[in-house]
Give the backbone structure.
Amino acid sequence: MKLILVIEDEQAIRSNMLKLLTLSGFQAIGAENGRMGVQMAQVYLPDLVLCDIMMPDLDGYEVLNTLRQQPETAMIPFIFLSAKAERSDLRYGMNLGADDYVTKPFTSRELLEAIKARLTKQETVTQPYVDEMKRAAESLSTVAYCDPLTSLPNRIVLRHRIQEAIVQAQRSSQLVAVICLNIDRFSEINVTLGYSMGDSVLQAVAQRLSQCVSPQDTVARLGGDEFSLVLVRVPDREAVIELMSTILGALRAPYLINGEIISLRASVGIALYPEHGANPDQLLSRAETSIRWGRKQGEKEFQFYQPSMDLIDAERRLLETDLRSALENDEFLLYYQPQVNLITGRVVGMEALVRWQHSQRGLLAPDRFIHLAEDLDLVIPLGAWVLKQACLQAQAWQSISLVPLRMSVNLSARQFKQTNLAACVAQTLQETGLNPKLLVMEVTETSLMEDIDDTVAKLRDLKAIGMEISIDDFGTGYSSLNYLRRFPLDTLKIDRSFVAQVMSDSNDAAIATAIIAMAQSLKLKVIAEGVETEDQLAFLRKHGCYAMQGFLFSPALPAAEIEALLKQDKRLNALTTNS
């Protein structure tokens, strides 16, 4: 309803006008003099002012002039009511900024038509500005509450949605699941394929996540490669597990983006209301804690929060202190996992895997301390120790094995960046007496792709010594086939995550098959990691994989047990088995 201010000193006229305006559907207020009229206009900001000219104290011209000089009232439509009809009077009022004149005496129809005409014109003039203001407000809202890359809600909206879900769950006695999801090794995409490709991948992930949940659920991007989901109306934990299977399956399916085929894995943490937290901040924090815990364990793609996870940070600090002295105290030892030729069934190599014999915590696997060694700049001296011990052991085993036994040693990303890497390796080989042809250096895809020219130079220096080069965990990174052709490589190792699902996941089977075929086209050997079943073995043999390592033949063992295995000449089942 439009508000109209009537400024008229004659009470009878003012009362009649207010009554007419009210009956005509307007909201009307009146002022008995010009000074009161100015004050009411400033307070109520009416949609239109009707003002008499001839008034004591402050006449209509002065009222108009005052209102036009103040920003908040300058644009209010203003109609004079006057018995003065001289052309000079009209011109003077218009020059001051009046919008119209209604000459006394006037009929009700004349007054209403003048009012409606002026209001219509005002709407026509101001509507574009109103629309623009709305668009600006919407744009600001989008910036404030939506992720600009994916158009998903951001953390602000997410917290609000979690709170709404909690209120709803309290009424329905159902659960709320807060899920945090990080794309594993996403930074490699930005490094190797460029930030534009990284953005495209994030958009594709956002789309797939949104397609996996119901309309009442929320998918948000928290920043970087971190996403979050809020699932409402959750009946039980099993329903969350079932949905996570769908989500992770969708994320694992290969992405074809700008001509590149990209495979992704994700780490997921889950917190449930009311079991794991009572408010949005608690639930988000505990879901993120679950991600960190799951990555360190390396067992599952998703983890539900457990109170014991809060001890992780405290344990890390204690381990850091102990790790600094572990090398000096000779607390590290090597385990070895056999690599078996899939045609002959014989052991043809070993992978050296470091363990930490902690005085209080027992035998610790690398995933418990390697990341700490990286953070503490201990990985280079530790890596040098591993290389020397592995070479010494390989040299000792040559007299036991019936075939030449290659020793594979992992190079960390930081080791690979050493400017004197080749010289250090050559010196170790000289000190231990191991034939360079029996040493295999395993490098991750990520390390190779950081600086292509430097990588090619380093690999050539290592190859010049006479050793072999293997890419570890192949398929989990983002290598380009064109780059692989430039690298002087000998072996690709298929990551265990693909091998584990070759019989149940068509995508992983396709990836494993493609890796083997690509390696064969480049005249490279392929070693499959994590082989645990006869079916997996049969699959690998069928597609021409060179060798395997995994629990199906033997776990990683200490040197004494490996020596017994070599003396027994333990072999894998013959080629005809399961083929």
Observations:
- The chain has three domains: 3-142, 155-307, 331-568.
- The radius of gyration is 39 Å.
